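Colleagues,

For the teaching module next term, I've prepared a clean inverse folding example: a structure given as tokens, and then the sequence designed for it. I'd like students to try predicting residues themselves before seeing the answer, so please don't circulate the second half yet.
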């Protein structure tokens, strides 16, 4: 560390330009093609992650396999639960998406059939849908029933939102149950009920 800290200002500036400190014992320069060479900022190449290669101009609401990750014998499937047409329809507001997260996670982690295989459920940053990660090498068709039941649970939910309390949540007042229910109904009526292959496989 001391090598880096003691660099002159000019050398540090040059290092910042190329995105890494000058070669030193503490910071050996990765060889081209090595995993570490695929790195950071300004002029340096980073790989575009798989979910950014999907053509969002053609993407419609549906259930899609976003990626599969393999860890030893375990496969995790990440699903893209797309609820609005990206860049063509209004996105969901954070309050209703927050409510969908609370209710959806509660449903998934209590579902007798799937609860032991649920890794994660949460909203996309672009606010056009959610991700769910499940254990197993799965396809979209495998979870249509699960996701339909989950959004029926949200659509029909009445009462106190689980976890919407100061002790349990980092922003507990930011909830909108009425809009969450409306969005769940919309996803069911327009997409999940009678879903077709075009809404289960990413567009080319
Ligand atoms: Zn919360």
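(Answer key — instructors only)
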């Amino acid at each position: 560390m001391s090598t880096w800290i003691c660099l002159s200002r000019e050398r540090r500036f040059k290092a910042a330009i190329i995105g890494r400190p000058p070669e030193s014992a503490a910071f050996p320069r990765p060889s081209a093609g090595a995993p570490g060479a695929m790195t950071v900022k300004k002029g340096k190449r980073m790989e575009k992650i798989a979910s950014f290669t999907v053509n969002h101009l053609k993407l419609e609401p549906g259930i899609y396999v976003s990626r599969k990750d393999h860890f030893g014998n375990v496969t995790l499937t990440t699903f893209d639960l797309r609820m609005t047409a990206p860049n063509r329809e209004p996105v969901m507001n954070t309050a209703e998406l927050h409510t969908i997260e609370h209710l959806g996670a509660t449903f998934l982690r209590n579902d007798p059939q799937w609860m032991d295989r649920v890794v994660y459920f949460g909203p996309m940053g672009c606010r056009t849908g959610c991700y769910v990660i499940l254990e197993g090498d799965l396809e979209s068709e495998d979870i249509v029933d699960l996701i339909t039941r989950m959004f029926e649970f949200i659509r029909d939910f009445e009462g106190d939102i689980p976890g919407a309390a100061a002790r349990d949540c980092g922003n507990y007042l930011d909830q909108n149950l009425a809009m969450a229910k409306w969005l769940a109904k919309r996803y069911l009526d327009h997409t999940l009920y009678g879903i077709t292959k075009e809404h289960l496989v990413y567009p080319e």
